[in-house]
Amino acid sequence: MERVAASVVSVDTDVECEISFAIDNQRLAVITGDAKVTVSLECQRCGKSFTHHVHTTYCFSPVKNDDQVEALPEAYEPIEVNEFGEIDLQALVEDEIILALPVVSRCMILNTVKCPRRTWSLVNCLKRHRSQIHLPY
């Protein structure tokens, strides 16, 4: 999971992954599953590292060309097979984990307070909403 490791401060647990393979009523191959991992991210507000639990689910159907992509039901995401008709399952899971990461990471202490007015400074905002902040310690 090199690409996941490059996207986060650290990968704190092994990836727990479940993958199922089936043929649906339309005789399409279907790959479903989920993946879980705990990572450390850098808060974009305070710069400190915090723990983030990633959980993602997926539902794919292998395709060879664009015509097959167009024919897929909306419930399935297309996944292209290589020239040997194979799918790189590790890359599939890694892609889904990366897509599940937040675009802008913020630690929960600062994320619990959502100010309607962006002109307040963070300190004033925290003072105003101190009763809503739940510290884990």
UniProtKB/TrEMBL annotation:
Kindly list the biological process annotations in GO that this record carries.
Answer: ribosome biogenesis
Entries under Pfam families matching the protein = YceD
What GO cellular-component annotations does this UniProt entry give? cytosol
Q: Which UniProt keywords apply?
A: Ribosome biogenesis
Q: What does this protein do?
A: Plays a role in synthesis, processing and/or stability of 23S rRNA.
Which family is it part of? Belongs to the DUF177 domain family.
Query: What protein does this entry describe?
Result: Large ribosomal RNA subunit accumulation protein YceD
Give the originating organism. Kluyvera cryocrescens
The organism that produces this protein has a lineage beginning with: Bacteria, Pseudomonadati, Pseudomonadota, Gammaproteobacteria, Enterobacterales
